[in-house]
Amino acid sequence: MKGEAIYKVPDGKLVRLSLELESDKISSVKIHGDFFMHPEDGIEAIEKALEGAQMGKELEAVIAQAIEANSIEMFGLNTKALAQAIKIAGENAK
Amino acid sequence: MNEFRLLCTGFSDAATNMATDEAIMRLHKNGDKPVVRFYGWKPHAVSIGYFQGINEEVDLEKAKELDCDVVRRITGGGAVFHEKELTYSFVCSEESKLVSKNILESYGKICGAIVAGLNELNVKADFVPLNDIIVNGKKISGNAQTRRGGNILQHGTLLLEVGVDKMFSLLKVPDEKMKGKIIESVKQRVTSLEFETKRQYSFRDMEDAMAAGFKKTFGAKLVPSELTAEEKTLAQELREKFAGKEWNYLR
Questions:
Q1: Domains of chain B (ranges, CATH numbers)
Q2: In A, what residues contact B, Cβ < 8 A?
Q3: Based on the structure, what is the number of domains in chain A?
Q4: What is the DSSP string of B127-161?
Q5: Do B146 and A38 touch (CB under 8 A)?
Q6: pLDDT of residue A73
């Protein structure tokens, strides 16, 4: 199943997210948007970390861990908002 | 007094502009003079943020029809239509005492130079975190920063005139049904130097004012300089990347 979401981060930037699901596990995810992330290649680390993750509550922990492990700093985007965008894309998936 | 290199490289195509910024950044070493570069875009161009999808942001057919360059930046942030504006870039080492290691603070400091430059033109401006400069409550300048290889690159625009309708003939919006409303709202939220002052400026006028802004903000002497042979060579190499599909369609 494939799903997309366009999510405006509260007090932040716009995230466009597309994902592929196999039952309720993420097989791939692409995160686009006008946010800032340092270092920039942290985005691939987060996308990679989300592969295989279960939809639901553990998403925030998976994202937070990737951020921690890669010393990522984000502006206009945060862990909670990213998890929310994934949730919406999951709900839109068909 | 601190000395900065001042590069006025004039108008270039989008790939050359982005390649030049990256080349300056990559070759910069701790202890080198920080670099201030001013430039313009010929032909007019759209740049998209590093994390944006090119097809989601830009009407590529329209861009082709209007001979508009499209390029992905190495910095985050949003899509920008570059036409009647002055663009600057600033490069220094992350170890430089001039700019905070804290990213938010460093935006404030570097944007402070543009605010001071506007003040030189008797325009009152404010920095609004994260990355905007506003005049009379409207955005006149957008800025974006990256840190790579121990160096900081920040580049940004200063709008001389603003063409919102032309801009949105090239840029897509998240909800096309809302496009009219979005255009109206952007018209309310964006301004330009000519609109605010009701007078005209040459590119040189803007360069001079912004150079004065950097001088004031950093207590620096700006020494007119040229790209080095090394910078030119690397910029030519990197130009291939910025002109190519692999990079521009990366995300």
A1: 2-248 (3.30.930.10)
A2: 6, 13-14, 16, 30-40, 43, 73, 75-76
A3: 1
A4: EETTTEEEETTEEEEEEEEEEETTEEEEEEEEESS
A5: yes
A6: 97
